[in-house]
Design goal:
mainly alpha, three-stranded mixed beta sheet, 25 helices, 3 strands, binds zinc ion
């Protein structure tokens, strides 16, 4: 009954000091490392703040793609039982970072700079290794209790400090964030181990391990060219001559592999480019790519053009691109999803709904489509069917607050107030807001209209959540 998000919230609250003098109880501080549950709770709490920050990309298609690559690496990690969550950060610097509990953030700048999927995977492999080798957990266990807690509050500050957000947080906080992030910097031994493990993950997962020294070398050259604007990756994981040489030695004996990039690698990059800056400039960029055949992947160039045209509200030309894409054959959930978005943007709601209904069986894992399909069903007055679609998706992901929000909307349309507020309570839990969740459950109980079974599950849930409240 208790969802994953609720148990993470409980663990995060257990870490959270109720009063300033009541520091988080991390159990045996002499332990060499945090337990997986403690680690995940710290990471979940940091993640909750990242989700609320403007840097959070919040694009399920990008996250799903990163997860596909990330899980290929996790799957070949010996003894990796940790959960992992991969997500995009809107930031042009070339960077990726791992947080406790396997939360791995990837900057859009890294996605756009990597010249191949193996290069991207080489950075992800390094970050996955920091997690599986417990570098973070060990480092946190060595800190004072109060700084461990600060670490959780810090992710957002570090994000703001790394991007353009000095203004967003104030210089003092930025300096504190920098000081703490320096204290939490990985040692050279950690970096060497992450490279060593990362290379072996790359090879085992079927990527080209030679992509790693190539990418590091490119970063290093870039930093020599641009003295002030060194790619951030070099600051958090310093790329030294020694490190590049070390990685070159490690891959020396490994065979070269021609690994074709997936279509999604190109589609994700095209989407990020098409959604950057002025829509008209984006159209010009992709028009040029298509006209001069200056692209790594033709399908993705046309996809990017279509995204840019829809953004620029040039529906006539967008229609031509979308039709051509359908004629050539839909090969990815991202393309299928774009057709639906195009029809919605055209104002053709019935057409969009019919399209999603025809595609959802082919791409059942595509979260962007699940959200859009459920929303379209609700709009069309078919909320009951939306509930069914959402129920299936929830079996796979209990931390996804957006599913609960859509479910609440569907129940609201159906006039089921008790169930609506029960869903809103779960959405609040996913957002880490326990008091609000309790409030919604109380409203749900008073709303009436629920049958006996529904009301008793709401009561049970309310008791559970109240027990999670920290003592006053
Ligand atoms: Zn590193």
């Amino acid at each position: 009954m208790r969802t994953l998000a609720a148990s993470l919230l409980a663990a995060a609250l257990a870490l959270h000091p109720a009063r300033a003098d009541d520091l988080p109880d991390l159990g045996d501080v002499s332990a060499a490392t945090l337990s997986p549950a403690q680690e995940r709770a710290i990471g979940w709490n940091a993640m909750r703040q990242i989700r609320a920050s403007p840097s959070y990309l919040d694009d399920p298609e990008v996250d799903d793609y990163l997860a596909t690559i990330g899980w290929r690496l996790v799957a070949v990690s010996p003894g990796a039982r940790t959960q992992f969550t991969f997500f995009g950060i809107r930031d042009n610097s070339v960077n990726a970072f791992a947080m406790p509990g396997g939360y791995i953030g990837v900057h859009t700048g890294l996605l756009l700079t990597a010249q191949s999927e193996s290069e991207l995977a080489s950075v992800l492999g390094h970050e996955v290794a920091h997690v599986t080798q417990k570098h973070l957990a060990r480092m946190l266990a060595q800190q004072n209790k109060d700084s461990v807690w600060t670490m959780a509050a810090l992710a957002l500050a570090i994000l703001a400090a790394r991007s353009n957000g000095q203004a967003a947080m104030g210089a003092v906080l930025a300096a504190q964030a920098q000081a703490l992030s320096n204290r939490l910097a990985f040692s050279r031994d950690n970096e060497r181990e992450a490279d060593r493990v990362g290379v072996s993950l790359l090879a085992k997962a079927g990527f080209d391990p030679h992509a790693m020294p190539v990418f590091l070398d490119r970063l290093q050259r870039a930093s020599r060219l641009y003295e002030t604007g060194a790619p951030t990756y070099m600051r958090s994981h310093p790329v030294t001559y020694e490190r590049v040489a070390d990685v070159q030695n490690r891959v020396f004996d490994l065979p070269y592999r021609q690994v074709p990039d997936s279509l999604e690698f190109h589609l994700v990059r095209a989407k990020l480019r098409a959604e950057q800056g002025d829509p008209r400039d984006a159209v010009t960029t992709f028009d040029e790519q298509v006209r001069e055949r200056k692209f790594a992947n033709e399908t993705a160039a046309h996809y990017g053009l279509a995204v840019a045209l829809i953004r620029a509200k040039d529906m006539k030309r967008a229609a031509v691109e979308i039709e051509a894409m359908q004629r050539a054959g839909i090969e990815s959930g991202m393309q299928a999803s774009l057709v639906g978005r195009f029809r919605t943007a055209q104002g053709d709601r019935a057409g969009a709904l019919a399209w999603y209904a025809s595609q959802i069986k082919t791409w059942p894992q595509h979260r962007g489509m699940v959200y859009a399909y459920a929303a379209a069903l609700i709009d069309a007055g078919r909320a009951g069917e939306a509930v069914d679609v959402l129920d299936v998706a929830m079996l796979k992901d209990q931390e996804d607050g957006r599913l609960y929000e859509l479910q609440a909307k569907a129940y609201s349309t159906l006039g089921k107030a008790a169930l609506q507020h029960r869903s809103l309570a779960e959405a609040s839990i996913a957002a880490g807001n326990l008091p609000l969740a309790i409030e919604h459950l109380q409203i749900a109980l008073n709303a009436g209209g629920g049958d006996f079974y529904t009301l008793s599950t709401i009561e049970a849930r309310l008791r559970e959540l109240k027990a999670l409240q920290p003592p006053r």
